[in-house]
Design a protein that fits this description.
alpha/beta, about 30% helix, elongated, binds magnesium ion
Length: about 400
């Protein structure tokens, strides 16, 4: 069964009162929005995710949603004036082959995969379903005359449930709901509209933690919940490593800098291809992981490494780093030489290193310096590298 989710963050969250809409506030180290999107993406039953946000937040939301939903993100679209207009905008771009579509509120970051699975199953069989929490407190109907309130009756709590999201609908129901959403009267949620259209909306068990963050108290409670769960939350560990290398320029050698071939310039002397950038980077990442250095792994006394492709050595070295559970956080390089001009090569070097380090160029920095006022360095390339590794 193909299931997609519309995460609705179209609202401005005015009840929290601040200048920032509630979905952009953070709990832990992520926004409420990211937590909600990631919680939906974590369900193995969910194929894709459409996100609806206020028009002015589109650019930022695209970055956050891509990070939270990874390869499950289908599209980020602007919302409308009312919640139902926003949901309709999201439903309109859900691929036609989705057999069940869930609608989830971006202000509910703690939804569980079990709740998502229950809604999917019920929506698939019944056409429309909603997660709801049981009411444990005794509920009173009250009367008020302004200054004073009194009990007028007790409502049997077995007849009550607190509506949550996700709410789920089969494709044939969506096809009826969607036009009614944009043309119809105001409704508080999609389930209410389905009721009005004559569908029986099935109720499945929600979760007490699947709260909607609406007030300052909700936000404080959510932050406390997350802090209390810190031991089981992902912990990001970091390690720093430093690398250094220098090679003399030599006539008749091919110049390779960070795996990038530079024509018309003398190459660097060395047992391997002399790529000092790759050697310094290899030392930095190995050093951060506590796995030795390039000279120990690929000794220049070993004929196997004669004229070796140093980018390949870096790839081999970094494979040991990833096998130990680390990934690259970022890498910063200073390359000191008169020629070639490193600034013109920087983007190509960043792309080359990022590819080998299973990262992206935005996490790799390459800065060129000339050795002004440093006697004896005119005929060499010197490289300093600092690498941050992370895991968790
Ligand atoms: Mg070297």
């Amino acid at each position: 069964m193909i299931v997609d989710v519309v995460v609705a963050a179209g609202g401005q969250g005015r009840r929290l009162g601040g200048p920032v809409a509630k979905q952009w506030l953070t709990i832990g180290d992520r926004t409420i929005f990211e937590c909600s999107v990631a919680a939906c993406a974590a369900s193995p039953l969910v194929r894709g995710i459409v996100v609806v946000v206020p028009d002015q937040d589109l650019a930022a939301a695209r970055t956050l949603a891509a990070r939270a939903a990874a390869d499950k993100l289908i599209e980020v679209v602007p919302g409308g004036a009312r919640r139902q207009d926003s949901v309709a905008a999201g439903l309109a771009v859900v691929p036609a082959d989705a057999q069940v579509v869930l609608v989830h509120d971006a202000a509910r970051p703690f939804v569980t995969t079990e709740v998502i699975a229950r809604v999917i199953e019920a929506a698939s069989s019944a056409g429309a379903a909603i997660a709801a929490a049981s009411v444990h407190d005794t509920v009173k109907r009250i009367g008020c005359d302004g200054a004073q309130c009194w009990i007028e009756g007790t409502i049997p709590r077995e007849q009550l449930a607190l509506a949550q999201t996700p709410q789920g609908f089969r494709r044939d129901v969506i096809d009826v709901l969607l036009p009614a959403m944009t043309s119809g009267a105001d409704v508080t949620d999609e389930a209410a509209l389905a009721e009005q259209l004559g569908y029986r909306v099935h109720v499945v068990e929600g979760h007490a933690d699947n709260v909607k963050i609406t007030t300052e108290e909700d936000l404080a409670r959510a932050r406390r919940t997350l802090a209390g769960e810190a031991p089981v939350a992902p912990v990001v560990a970091t390690r720093i490593g430093i690398g250094y290398d220098s090679h003399r320029f030599a006539a008749g050698r091919r110049l390779v800098v960070g795996g990038v071939h530079v024509p018309d310039v003398n190459g660097l002397a060395g047992h391997s291809d002399g790529d000092a950038v790759c050697h310094a980077v290899t030392d930095a990442v190995l050093g951060a992981a506590g796995l030795g250095d390039v000279g120990g792994l690929f000794p220049d006394t070993d004929p196997a490494w004669k004229d070796a492709d140093s980018l390949g050595l870096l790839r081999d070295g970094f494979a040991r780093v990833t096998a130990a559970g680390w990934r690259l956080g970022n890498l910063d390089l200073v390359v000191i030489c008169h020629r070639p001009k490193i600034g013109r090569l920087a983007d190509a070097i960043r792309a080359s290193l990022a590819e080998v380090l299973a990262s992206t160029p935005d996490r790799v920095s390459v800065k060129g310096k000339t050795p002004e006022g440093t006697p004896g360095l005119d005929d060499a390339m010197i490289v300093h590298a600092v690498a941050l590794l992370e895991r968790g």
